Amino acid sequence: MYLIAPSILSADFARLGEEVTRVVDSGADWIHFDVMDNHYVPNMTVGPVVCKAIRPMTTAMIDVHLMTRPVDRLIGDFAKAGANVITFHPEASEHVDRSLSLIRDSGCQSGLAFNPATPLHYMDYVMDKLDLVLLMGVNPGFGGQKFIPSTLTKLQEARARALAYEQEADRRIRVGIDGGVKVDNVAAIALAGADTFVAGSAIFEAGQDGDPHHYDSVIAAMRAQLSRV
């Protein structure tokens, strides 16, 4: 039921392929691939060529999170590069329904990401095209930020919307949290309705000394907390 998706934003980019292999071997379910353009968010990261490079390193799902504006051109590029899930922010698309359709037509699962101050009403009109709703627990752009507590209330609202649709359409929409997820709050986040957890610094910074067992221990600790929910 629960998926843990380490964000490579906090990985060692000098050893990115090795980092991806190690974290998946340590129990990660998805690889979260943060794409920033220094326009939509005040940071710049990586593009499709890097996604293509790490695709042969793992069979795990690659979840591409577009923090860019515009998004439509990048959708096709990342689908060709090996992405399995592509998520974007509704404010970054002129036509949210069309962008979601582009993702699905490319053979990927589609998602919408919501910043802390972005209302959830965007999802109400495109539920039939959503596989994932991703709520930001921090303002996007940088790793290592503290979780914004009000996200839990918003998470409950998103889960209620997704559950109502699931009962009507008999199709599950995953609800995730990205940002500020750690061992000591992952259970509370799950109780509020999340089933997918994007964690960057909490996992990758634990292995900065090169010991892969640190990844094992953090992911195992998160799963232990989740097993109590």
Uncertain runs are none
User: What fraction strand?
Assistant: 15-25%
- Sum up the overall morphology in one term: globular
What is the number of strand segments? 8
Radius of gyration, Cα only, in angstroms? Answer: 16 Å
Measure the end-to-end span.
12 Å
Based on the structure given, which CATH architecture is correct?
Alpha-Beta Barrel
CATH homology-level superfamily: Aldolase class I
Q: How many separate domains make up the residues?
A: 1
Structure description:
The chain has 229 residues and is of the alpha/beta class. The protein has a single domain (3-227), classed as Aldolase class I (TIM Barrel). It contains eight helices and eight strands, in the order βαβαβαβαββαβαβαα. Helix 2 packs parallel to helix 3.
Please summarize what this structure is.
The protein is an alpha/beta fold. The chain has helices spanning 16-25, 48-54, 72-81, 96-105, 151-169, 186-191, 201-204, 213-227, and strands spanning 3-6, 30-36, 61-67, 85-88, 109-114, 132-136, 174-178, 196-199. The radius of gyration is 16 Å and the shape is globular.
